[in-house]
Sequence to fold (523 residues):
Amino acid sequence: MRGSFIFASFALKKDTRDKKTHLLRFVCIGIVFCILFSSWITSSRVGSPGLDFFTKIIWLNFWLVTLAGIGFFSTSITEEKEEETLPLLKLAGINTFALLTGKSSVRALRMILLLMGQLPFLLLSVSLGGITPLQIYATLIAMIGYIILISNFALLCSVYAKRSGEAIALMLTALFFYFLFPTLQYHLTVNLQSRGYLTLTDSISSSSKYLFVISQEHSVVEQIKQILTTGYSGSILSSQVISNVSLGILFFTLAWFIFDFCTEKTTINVSGSRKFQSHKRFMNSRPGTNAFVWKEFQFSGGGLKATLLKLILYPTLIIVIVGGGILFDRYTTSSSIQSFTWKELVSAALLLLFVSFIVECTIYASRIFREERIQKMIPLLSILPCSMFRIAYEKVGGIILSLIPVCLTIILVILIVPESITYLTSSGLYSLVPLMIIQFCIFLHLLAYYSLMVRWGALAFAIGTFILVESCATPLLQLFYFMFQDTIGEAGVLLPAFYLSLVCCFILQMLIAGRFHQIAAEE
Fold:
Protein backbone atom coordinates (compact mmCIF):
# COMPACT_ATOMS: atom_id res chain seq x y z
CA MET A 1 0.00 0.00 0.00
CA ARG A 2 2.95 2.34 0.52
CA GLY A 3 3.88 2.26 -3.14
CA SER A 4 0.30 2.83 -4.26
CA PHE A 5 0.13 6.15 -2.40
CA ILE A 6 3.35 7.58 -3.86
CA PHE A 7 1.49 9.52 -6.55
CA ALA A 8 -1.04 10.84 -4.02
CA SER A 9 1.67 11.94 -1.58
CA PHE A 10 3.55 13.62 -4.42
CA ALA A 11 0.41 15.53 -5.42
CA LEU A 12 -0.18 16.62 -1.82
CA LYS A 13 3.43 17.80 -1.41
CA LYS A 14 3.21 19.69 -4.70
CA ASP A 15 -0.02 21.29 -3.54
CA THR A 16 1.52 22.31 -0.20
CA ARG A 17 4.53 23.94 -1.83
CA ASP A 18 2.56 25.70 -4.55
CA LYS A 19 2.26 29.41 -3.82
CA LYS A 20 -0.85 29.76 -5.96
CA THR A 21 -2.78 27.36 -3.72
CA HIS A 22 -2.02 29.35 -0.58
CA LEU A 23 -2.79 32.57 -2.43
CA LEU A 24 -6.16 31.15 -3.43
CA ARG A 25 -6.92 30.30 0.19
CA PHE A 26 -6.06 33.83 1.29
CA VAL A 27 -8.28 35.18 -1.47
CA CYS A 28 -11.16 33.01 -0.23
CA ILE A 29 -10.69 34.36 3.29
CA GLY A 30 -10.58 37.90 1.89
CA ILE A 31 -13.89 37.26 0.13
CA VAL A 32 -15.35 36.09 3.43
CA PHE A 33 -14.34 39.38 5.03
CA CYS A 34 -15.82 41.37 2.12
CA ILE A 35 -19.15 39.61 2.51
CA LEU A 36 -18.91 40.08 6.29
CA PHE A 37 -18.44 43.80 5.71
CA SER A 38 -21.45 43.81 3.38
CA SER A 39 -23.60 42.08 6.02
CA TRP A 40 -22.42 44.56 8.65
CA ILE A 41 -23.45 47.48 6.41
CA THR A 42 -26.93 46.05 5.92
CA SER A 43 -27.30 44.81 9.53
CA SER A 44 -29.68 47.64 10.41
CA ARG A 45 -32.10 46.51 7.68
CA VAL A 46 -31.74 42.74 8.25
CA GLY A 47 -33.26 40.92 11.20
CA SER A 48 -30.54 38.24 11.45
CA PRO A 49 -27.25 39.59 10.06
CA GLY A 50 -25.32 36.46 11.10
CA LEU A 51 -27.71 34.22 9.18
CA ASP A 52 -27.55 36.58 6.21
CA PHE A 53 -23.74 36.49 6.23
CA PHE A 54 -23.53 32.71 6.54
CA THR A 55 -26.20 32.16 3.86
CA LYS A 56 -24.25 34.26 1.34
CA ILE A 57 -21.02 32.39 2.08
CA ILE A 58 -22.48 28.90 1.93
CA TRP A 59 -24.37 29.45 -1.35
CA LEU A 60 -21.25 30.97 -2.86
CA ASN A 61 -19.35 27.85 -1.82
CA PHE A 62 -22.06 25.66 -3.31
CA TRP A 63 -21.83 27.31 -6.71
CA LEU A 64 -18.05 27.22 -6.69
CA VAL A 65 -18.02 23.51 -5.80
CA THR A 66 -20.52 22.82 -8.58
CA LEU A 67 -18.41 24.74 -11.09
CA ALA A 68 -15.33 22.89 -9.87
CA GLY A 69 -17.13 19.63 -10.52
CA ILE A 70 -17.80 20.74 -14.10
CA GLY A 71 -14.40 22.13 -15.03
CA PHE A 72 -11.87 20.99 -12.41
CA PHE A 73 -12.78 17.46 -11.28
CA SER A 74 -14.06 16.22 -14.65
CA THR A 75 -10.71 16.75 -16.42
CA SER A 76 -8.54 14.79 -13.99
CA ILE A 77 -8.04 11.76 -16.27
CA THR A 78 -9.04 13.13 -19.68
CA GLU A 79 -6.19 15.63 -19.62
CA GLU A 80 -3.78 12.71 -19.36
CA LYS A 81 -5.60 10.97 -22.23
CA GLU A 82 -5.34 14.02 -24.46
CA GLU A 83 -1.67 14.53 -23.70
CA GLU A 84 -1.09 10.75 -24.11
CA THR A 85 0.80 10.46 -20.81
CA LEU A 86 -1.21 7.60 -19.31
CA PRO A 87 1.11 4.92 -20.79
CA LEU A 88 4.09 6.71 -19.23
CA LEU A 89 2.39 6.75 -15.83
CA LYS A 90 1.61 3.04 -16.10
CA LEU A 91 5.19 2.37 -17.21
CA ALA A 92 6.43 4.16 -14.10
CA GLY A 93 4.72 1.52 -11.94
CA ILE A 94 1.81 3.66 -10.74
CA ASN A 95 -1.22 1.43 -10.31
CA THR A 96 -4.82 2.40 -10.94
CA PHE A 97 -5.72 3.12 -7.32
CA ALA A 98 -2.74 5.43 -6.85
CA LEU A 99 -3.46 7.25 -10.10
CA LEU A 100 -7.13 7.83 -9.25
CA THR A 101 -6.28 8.88 -5.72
CA GLY A 102 -3.57 11.27 -6.80
CA LYS A 103 -5.52 12.81 -9.69
CA SER A 104 -9.00 13.08 -8.20
CA SER A 105 -9.09 12.53 -4.45
CA VAL A 106 -6.34 15.06 -3.87
CA ARG A 107 -8.36 17.63 -5.80
CA ALA A 108 -11.39 16.87 -3.62
CA LEU A 109 -9.20 17.19 -0.52
CA ARG A 110 -7.97 20.58 -1.72
CA MET A 111 -11.56 21.75 -2.07
CA ILE A 112 -12.44 20.44 1.40
CA LEU A 113 -9.44 22.24 2.88
CA LEU A 114 -10.55 25.48 1.22
CA LEU A 115 -13.95 24.98 2.81
CA MET A 116 -12.58 24.13 6.25
CA GLY A 117 -10.22 27.13 6.13
CA GLN A 118 -13.28 29.37 6.29
CA LEU A 119 -14.61 27.74 9.48
CA PRO A 120 -12.96 30.09 12.06
CA PHE A 121 -14.29 33.10 10.17
CA LEU A 122 -17.74 31.59 9.64
CA LEU A 123 -18.08 31.24 13.40
CA LEU A 124 -18.15 35.05 13.52
CA SER A 125 -21.71 34.82 12.22
CA VAL A 126 -22.76 33.36 15.60
CA SER A 127 -21.83 36.62 17.31
CA LEU A 128 -23.84 38.57 14.71
CA GLY A 129 -26.95 36.59 15.64
CA GLY A 130 -29.49 34.46 13.86
CA ILE A 131 -27.52 31.20 13.59
CA THR A 132 -26.11 28.54 15.91
CA PRO A 133 -22.81 26.59 15.76
CA LEU A 134 -24.83 23.39 15.12
CA GLN A 135 -26.19 24.87 11.90
CA ILE A 136 -22.69 25.88 10.78
CA TYR A 137 -21.21 22.42 11.43
CA ALA A 138 -24.18 20.64 9.84
CA THR A 139 -23.95 22.81 6.72
CA LEU A 140 -20.21 22.23 6.34
CA ILE A 141 -20.65 18.46 6.72
CA ALA A 142 -23.41 18.56 4.08
CA MET A 143 -21.07 20.45 1.74
CA ILE A 144 -18.27 17.93 2.35
CA GLY A 145 -20.62 15.08 1.45
CA TYR A 146 -21.59 16.94 -1.72
CA ILE A 147 -17.90 17.46 -2.61
CA ILE A 148 -17.25 13.73 -2.22
CA LEU A 149 -20.23 12.92 -4.43
CA ILE A 150 -19.52 15.37 -7.24
CA SER A 151 -15.74 14.77 -7.31
CA ASN A 152 -16.06 11.01 -7.61
CA PHE A 153 -18.83 11.16 -10.20
CA ALA A 154 -16.68 13.60 -12.19
CA LEU A 155 -13.85 11.08 -11.87
CA LEU A 156 -16.10 8.38 -13.32
CA CYS A 157 -17.03 10.67 -16.23
CA SER A 158 -13.37 11.53 -16.78
CA VAL A 159 -12.39 7.85 -16.88
CA TYR A 160 -15.21 6.94 -19.24
CA ALA A 161 -14.94 9.89 -21.67
CA LYS A 162 -12.25 10.17 -24.31
CA ARG A 163 -12.11 13.96 -24.24
CA SER A 164 -12.54 16.61 -21.61
CA GLY A 165 -15.46 18.08 -23.53
CA GLU A 166 -17.34 14.79 -23.33
CA ALA A 167 -16.68 14.53 -19.59
CA ILE A 168 -17.94 18.08 -19.05
CA ALA A 169 -21.07 17.32 -21.09
CA LEU A 170 -21.72 14.21 -18.99
CA MET A 171 -21.32 16.26 -15.81
CA LEU A 172 -23.77 18.91 -17.01
CA THR A 173 -26.29 16.22 -17.92
CA ALA A 174 -25.90 14.53 -14.54
CA LEU A 175 -26.33 17.83 -12.66
CA PHE A 176 -29.50 18.52 -14.63
CA PHE A 177 -30.97 15.14 -13.69
CA TYR A 178 -29.80 15.52 -10.08
CA PHE A 179 -31.12 19.03 -9.37
CA LEU A 180 -33.74 20.00 -11.95
CA PHE A 181 -35.32 16.94 -13.55
CA PRO A 182 -37.15 15.55 -10.46
CA THR A 183 -38.75 18.92 -9.75
CA LEU A 184 -39.67 19.57 -13.38
CA GLN A 185 -41.24 16.15 -13.92
CA TYR A 186 -43.16 16.39 -10.61
CA HIS A 187 -44.64 19.80 -11.48
CA LEU A 188 -45.47 18.53 -14.98
CA THR A 189 -47.27 15.55 -13.45
CA VAL A 190 -49.24 17.82 -11.08
CA ASN A 191 -50.16 20.03 -14.03
CA LEU A 192 -51.39 17.04 -16.04
CA GLN A 193 -53.38 15.83 -13.01
CA SER A 194 -55.12 19.19 -12.67
CA ARG A 195 -56.01 19.11 -16.36
CA GLY A 196 -57.52 15.65 -16.07
CA TYR A 197 -54.93 13.67 -18.06
CA LEU A 198 -53.62 11.76 -15.01
CA THR A 199 -55.07 10.60 -11.72
CA LEU A 200 -53.55 10.66 -8.25
CA THR A 201 -53.40 6.88 -7.96
CA ASP A 202 -51.94 5.78 -11.29
CA SER A 203 -48.40 4.44 -11.61
CA ILE A 204 -47.00 7.50 -13.39
CA SER A 205 -48.15 9.88 -10.64
CA SER A 206 -46.91 7.59 -7.86
CA SER A 207 -43.51 7.12 -9.50
CA SER A 208 -43.18 10.85 -10.13
CA LYS A 209 -43.98 11.71 -6.51
CA TYR A 210 -41.64 9.01 -5.18
CA LEU A 211 -38.76 10.25 -7.34
CA PHE A 212 -39.40 13.82 -6.23
CA VAL A 213 -39.44 12.89 -2.53
CA ILE A 214 -36.23 10.84 -2.83
CA SER A 215 -34.45 13.61 -4.69
CA GLN A 216 -35.51 16.21 -2.12
CA GLU A 217 -34.34 13.99 0.74
CA HIS A 218 -30.86 13.46 -0.71
CA SER A 219 -30.33 16.86 -2.35
CA VAL A 220 -27.73 19.11 -0.78
CA VAL A 221 -29.76 22.19 -1.76
CA GLU A 222 -32.80 21.06 0.21
CA GLN A 223 -30.59 19.95 3.10
CA ILE A 224 -28.97 23.40 3.33
CA LYS A 225 -32.38 25.07 3.18
CA GLN A 226 -33.61 22.83 6.00
CA ILE A 227 -30.51 23.48 8.12
CA LEU A 228 -30.80 27.26 7.73
CA THR A 229 -34.39 27.34 8.99
CA THR A 230 -34.99 28.83 12.43
CA GLY A 231 -34.82 26.36 15.32
CA TYR A 232 -32.97 23.58 13.50
CA SER A 233 -31.92 20.84 15.93
CA GLY A 234 -31.27 17.85 13.67
CA SER A 235 -28.23 15.65 13.44
CA ILE A 236 -25.02 16.59 11.67
CA LEU A 237 -24.97 13.25 9.83
CA SER A 238 -28.18 13.47 7.84
CA SER A 239 -29.44 11.06 5.21
CA GLN A 240 -28.12 13.43 2.54
CA VAL A 241 -24.57 13.20 3.89
CA ILE A 242 -24.67 9.41 4.22
CA SER A 243 -26.15 8.91 0.73
CA ASN A 244 -23.75 11.37 -0.93
CA VAL A 245 -20.69 9.78 0.68
CA SER A 246 -21.92 6.26 -0.16
CA LEU A 247 -22.58 7.18 -3.78
CA GLY A 248 -19.19 8.88 -3.97
CA ILE A 249 -17.47 5.70 -2.81
CA LEU A 250 -19.54 3.69 -5.31
CA PHE A 251 -18.58 6.00 -8.19
CA PHE A 252 -14.89 5.80 -7.21
CA THR A 253 -15.10 2.01 -7.19
CA LEU A 254 -16.78 1.96 -10.61
CA ALA A 255 -14.09 4.27 -11.99
CA TRP A 256 -11.46 1.91 -10.57
CA PHE A 257 -13.05 -1.11 -12.24
CA ILE A 258 -13.54 0.40 -15.70
CA PHE A 259 -10.24 2.30 -15.79
CA ASP A 260 -8.23 -0.33 -17.67
CA PHE A 261 -11.04 -0.98 -20.15
CA CYS A 262 -11.55 2.73 -20.94
CA THR A 263 -7.85 3.61 -21.16
CA GLU A 264 -6.54 0.78 -23.33
CA LYS A 265 -6.54 3.02 -26.41
CA THR A 266 -5.62 6.50 -25.30
CA THR A 267 -4.60 7.83 -28.70
CA ILE A 268 -7.21 10.19 -30.05
CA ASN A 269 -7.49 10.44 -33.80
CA VAL A 270 -7.85 14.18 -33.91
CA SER A 271 -6.82 14.74 -37.51
CA GLY A 272 -9.28 12.19 -38.86
CA SER A 273 -12.19 13.68 -36.95
CA ARG A 274 -11.26 17.18 -38.08
CA LYS A 275 -11.07 16.09 -41.69
CA PHE A 276 -14.45 14.41 -41.37
CA GLN A 277 -15.95 17.55 -39.89
CA SER A 278 -14.31 19.81 -42.45
CA HIS A 279 -15.87 17.85 -45.33
CA LYS A 280 -19.28 18.33 -43.78
CA ARG A 281 -19.00 22.11 -43.76
CA PHE A 282 -20.37 24.41 -46.37
CA MET A 283 -17.13 25.71 -47.93
CA ASN A 284 -18.05 27.21 -51.28
CA SER A 285 -17.07 30.75 -50.26
CA ARG A 286 -13.54 32.18 -50.20
CA PRO A 287 -11.77 34.10 -47.41
CA GLY A 288 -11.00 37.24 -49.41
CA THR A 289 -9.25 40.06 -47.55
CA ASN A 290 -10.85 39.26 -44.16
CA ALA A 291 -9.49 35.77 -43.61
CA PHE A 292 -10.07 35.64 -39.86
CA VAL A 293 -13.68 36.83 -40.17
CA TRP A 294 -14.29 34.14 -42.77
CA LYS A 295 -12.54 31.47 -40.71
CA GLU A 296 -14.50 32.23 -37.54
CA PHE A 297 -17.80 32.40 -39.43
CA GLN A 298 -17.19 29.14 -41.30
CA PHE A 299 -15.60 26.98 -38.59
CA SER A 300 -16.95 28.31 -35.27
CA GLY A 301 -20.31 29.57 -36.48
CA GLY A 302 -20.99 26.75 -38.95
CA GLY A 303 -20.99 28.92 -42.06
CA LEU A 304 -23.88 29.74 -44.35
CA LYS A 305 -25.53 26.36 -43.86
CA ALA A 306 -25.80 26.78 -40.08
CA THR A 307 -26.97 30.39 -40.52
CA LEU A 308 -29.83 29.34 -42.81
CA LEU A 309 -30.74 26.54 -40.42
CA LYS A 310 -30.94 28.95 -37.49
CA LEU A 311 -33.00 31.40 -39.56
CA ILE A 312 -35.56 28.62 -39.90
CA LEU A 313 -35.19 27.16 -36.41
CA TYR A 314 -35.71 30.31 -34.31
CA PRO A 315 -38.98 31.49 -35.95
CA THR A 316 -40.24 27.90 -35.87
CA LEU A 317 -39.49 27.79 -32.14
CA ILE A 318 -41.59 30.92 -31.59
CA ILE A 319 -44.49 29.53 -33.59
CA VAL A 320 -44.37 26.25 -31.65
CA ILE A 321 -44.31 28.00 -28.24
CA VAL A 322 -47.05 30.52 -29.02
CA GLY A 323 -49.27 28.23 -31.09
CA GLY A 324 -48.76 25.24 -28.81
CA GLY A 325 -49.53 27.29 -25.70
CA ILE A 326 -52.74 28.68 -27.22
CA LEU A 327 -53.94 25.26 -28.37
CA PHE A 328 -53.04 23.63 -25.06
CA ASP A 329 -55.05 26.20 -23.09
CA ARG A 330 -57.93 26.02 -25.56
CA TYR A 331 -58.46 22.27 -25.36
CA THR A 332 -58.12 21.89 -21.58
CA THR A 333 -61.17 22.23 -19.38
CA SER A 334 -59.58 22.71 -15.95
CA SER A 335 -60.30 26.13 -14.43
CA SER A 336 -57.61 25.89 -11.75
CA ILE A 337 -54.82 26.53 -14.26
CA GLN A 338 -54.03 30.09 -15.19
CA SER A 339 -54.50 30.77 -18.90
CA PHE A 340 -51.94 32.86 -20.76
CA THR A 341 -52.61 35.39 -23.49
CA TRP A 342 -50.77 35.22 -26.79
CA LYS A 343 -48.78 38.34 -25.87
CA GLU A 344 -47.51 36.66 -22.71
CA LEU A 345 -46.56 33.60 -24.74
CA VAL A 346 -44.66 35.81 -27.18
CA SER A 347 -42.85 37.37 -24.20
CA ALA A 348 -41.88 33.89 -23.01
CA ALA A 349 -40.59 33.08 -26.49
CA LEU A 350 -38.65 36.36 -26.53
CA LEU A 351 -37.09 35.49 -23.19
CA LEU A 352 -36.05 32.13 -24.64
CA LEU A 353 -34.47 33.95 -27.60
CA PHE A 354 -32.45 36.12 -25.20
CA VAL A 355 -31.28 32.97 -23.44
CA SER A 356 -30.29 31.50 -26.82
CA PHE A 357 -28.35 34.66 -27.60
CA ILE A 358 -26.46 34.40 -24.31
CA VAL A 359 -25.73 30.70 -24.87
CA GLU A 360 -24.43 31.32 -28.40
CA CYS A 361 -22.20 34.19 -27.25
CA THR A 362 -20.83 32.02 -24.44
CA ILE A 363 -20.05 29.11 -26.77
CA TYR A 364 -18.39 31.30 -29.38
CA ALA A 365 -16.35 33.22 -26.80
CA SER A 366 -15.07 30.00 -25.22
CA ARG A 367 -13.97 28.71 -28.65
CA ILE A 368 -12.60 31.92 -30.13
CA PHE A 369 -8.93 31.00 -29.48
CA ARG A 370 -9.34 27.31 -28.68
CA GLU A 371 -8.39 25.82 -32.05
CA GLU A 372 -5.34 28.06 -32.38
CA ARG A 373 -4.25 27.05 -28.89
CA ILE A 374 -4.70 23.30 -29.46
CA GLN A 375 -3.07 23.30 -32.91
CA LYS A 376 -0.26 25.59 -31.64
CA MET A 377 -0.91 28.14 -34.36
CA ILE A 378 -0.49 31.21 -32.14
CA PRO A 379 3.30 31.52 -32.84
CA LEU A 380 2.51 31.55 -36.57
CA LEU A 381 -0.18 34.18 -36.06
CA SER A 382 2.26 36.40 -34.18
CA ILE A 383 4.58 36.68 -37.20
CA LEU A 384 1.82 37.82 -39.56
CA PRO A 385 1.98 41.46 -40.73
CA CYS A 386 -0.98 42.46 -38.57
CA SER A 387 -1.42 43.11 -34.88
CA MET A 388 -2.97 40.72 -32.39
CA PHE A 389 -5.75 43.22 -31.75
CA ARG A 390 -6.74 43.15 -35.42
CA ILE A 391 -6.77 39.35 -35.43
CA ALA A 392 -8.93 39.29 -32.30
CA TYR A 393 -11.34 41.93 -33.62
CA GLU A 394 -11.71 40.13 -36.96
CA LYS A 395 -12.53 36.91 -35.10
CA VAL A 396 -15.13 38.84 -33.11
CA GLY A 397 -16.54 40.07 -36.42
CA GLY A 398 -16.97 36.48 -37.56
CA ILE A 399 -18.82 35.71 -34.33
CA ILE A 400 -21.13 38.70 -34.88
CA LEU A 401 -21.99 37.34 -38.32
CA SER A 402 -22.91 34.01 -36.69
CA LEU A 403 -25.24 35.85 -34.28
CA ILE A 404 -27.26 37.46 -37.08
CA PRO A 405 -30.10 34.83 -37.08
CA VAL A 406 -30.95 35.12 -33.39
CA CYS A 407 -30.61 38.93 -33.47
CA LEU A 408 -32.88 39.22 -36.50
CA THR A 409 -35.47 36.99 -34.83
CA ILE A 410 -35.40 39.09 -31.65
CA ILE A 411 -35.82 42.31 -33.65
CA LEU A 412 -38.65 40.77 -35.68
CA VAL A 413 -40.55 39.71 -32.56
CA ILE A 414 -40.16 43.16 -30.98
CA LEU A 415 -41.34 44.90 -34.17
CA ILE A 416 -44.39 42.65 -34.57
CA VAL A 417 -45.37 42.62 -30.88
CA PRO A 418 -43.87 45.70 -29.15
CA GLU A 419 -45.78 44.84 -25.95
CA SER A 420 -43.68 41.69 -25.50
CA ILE A 421 -40.66 43.66 -24.35
CA THR A 422 -42.74 45.53 -21.76
CA TYR A 423 -43.58 42.26 -19.96
CA LEU A 424 -39.88 41.61 -19.50
CA THR A 425 -39.09 45.16 -18.27
CA SER A 426 -42.17 45.69 -16.10
CA SER A 427 -40.37 44.57 -12.93
CA GLY A 428 -38.57 47.92 -12.49
CA LEU A 429 -35.20 46.66 -13.71
CA TYR A 430 -35.25 48.65 -16.95
CA SER A 431 -32.53 51.02 -15.71
CA LEU A 432 -30.24 48.06 -15.00
CA VAL A 433 -30.24 46.88 -18.62
CA PRO A 434 -27.10 48.88 -19.67
CA LEU A 435 -25.27 47.63 -16.57
CA MET A 436 -26.30 44.03 -17.27
CA ILE A 437 -25.09 44.33 -20.88
CA ILE A 438 -21.66 45.65 -19.88
CA GLN A 439 -21.40 42.99 -17.16
CA PHE A 440 -22.09 40.34 -19.77
CA CYS A 441 -19.34 41.87 -21.93
CA ILE A 442 -16.94 41.52 -18.98
CA PHE A 443 -17.93 37.87 -18.65
CA LEU A 444 -17.25 37.24 -22.35
CA HIS A 445 -13.84 38.93 -22.08
CA LEU A 446 -13.07 36.83 -19.02
CA LEU A 447 -14.15 33.67 -20.83
CA ALA A 448 -11.94 34.48 -23.82
CA TYR A 449 -8.99 35.12 -21.49
CA TYR A 450 -9.44 31.81 -19.66
CA SER A 451 -9.68 29.99 -22.99
CA LEU A 452 -6.04 31.02 -23.45
CA MET A 453 -5.09 30.03 -19.90
CA VAL A 454 -6.58 26.53 -19.61
CA ARG A 455 -7.27 23.75 -22.10
CA TRP A 456 -10.67 22.79 -20.64
CA GLY A 457 -13.02 24.24 -18.09
CA ALA A 458 -12.68 27.88 -19.19
CA LEU A 459 -16.43 28.41 -18.74
CA ALA A 460 -16.39 27.08 -15.16
CA PHE A 461 -13.37 29.22 -14.25
CA ALA A 462 -14.93 32.31 -15.83
CA ILE A 463 -18.23 31.85 -13.99
CA GLY A 464 -16.44 31.22 -10.70
CA THR A 465 -14.21 34.28 -11.08
CA PHE A 466 -17.17 36.43 -12.10
CA ILE A 467 -19.15 35.34 -9.03
CA LEU A 468 -16.21 36.05 -6.75
CA VAL A 469 -15.57 39.49 -8.23
CA GLU A 470 -19.24 40.43 -8.05
CA SER A 471 -19.38 39.31 -4.41
CA CYS A 472 -16.39 41.48 -3.56
CA ALA A 473 -17.79 44.47 -5.47
CA THR A 474 -21.13 44.38 -3.65
CA PRO A 475 -19.91 46.26 -0.50
CA LEU A 476 -18.32 48.93 -2.72
CA LEU A 477 -21.59 49.48 -4.61
CA GLN A 478 -23.46 49.69 -1.32
CA LEU A 479 -21.08 52.40 -0.15
CA PHE A 480 -21.69 54.33 -3.38
CA TYR A 481 -25.43 53.99 -2.83
CA PHE A 482 -25.31 55.29 0.74
CA MET A 483 -23.06 58.20 -0.28
CA PHE A 484 -25.05 59.38 -3.30
CA GLN A 485 -28.62 58.15 -2.76
CA ASP A 486 -29.86 61.59 -1.65
CA THR A 487 -28.16 63.62 -4.38
CA ILE A 488 -27.83 61.40 -7.44
CA GLY A 489 -30.17 58.55 -6.57
CA GLU A 490 -30.00 55.29 -8.45
CA ALA A 491 -27.32 56.63 -10.79
CA GLY A 492 -24.95 56.78 -7.80
CA VAL A 493 -24.65 53.00 -8.10
CA LEU A 494 -25.13 52.50 -11.83
CA LEU A 495 -22.69 55.07 -13.21
CA PRO A 496 -19.61 54.01 -11.15
CA ALA A 497 -20.37 50.36 -11.82
CA PHE A 498 -20.74 51.08 -15.56
CA TYR A 499 -17.45 52.96 -15.77
CA LEU A 500 -15.61 50.34 -13.71
CA SER A 501 -16.98 47.66 -16.03
CA LEU A 502 -15.63 49.53 -19.07
CA VAL A 503 -12.22 49.73 -17.41
CA CYS A 504 -12.33 45.99 -16.66
CA CYS A 505 -13.09 45.23 -20.33
CA PHE A 506 -10.09 47.31 -21.40
CA ILE A 507 -7.82 45.62 -18.85
CA LEU A 508 -8.97 42.16 -19.96
CA GLN A 509 -8.22 43.06 -23.58
CA MET A 510 -4.70 44.01 -22.55
CA LEU A 511 -4.36 40.72 -20.66
CA ILE A 512 -5.57 38.73 -23.69
CA ALA A 513 -3.00 40.43 -25.91
CA GLY A 514 -0.27 39.81 -23.33
CA ARG A 515 -1.25 36.15 -23.07
CA PHE A 516 -1.07 35.88 -26.86
CA HIS A 517 2.50 37.12 -26.88
CA GLN A 518 3.43 34.88 -23.94
CA ILE A 519 2.12 31.74 -25.67
CA ALA A 520 3.87 32.73 -28.90
CA ALA A 521 7.17 33.10 -27.02
CA GLU A 522 6.79 29.81 -25.10
CA GLU A 523 5.83 27.63 -28.06
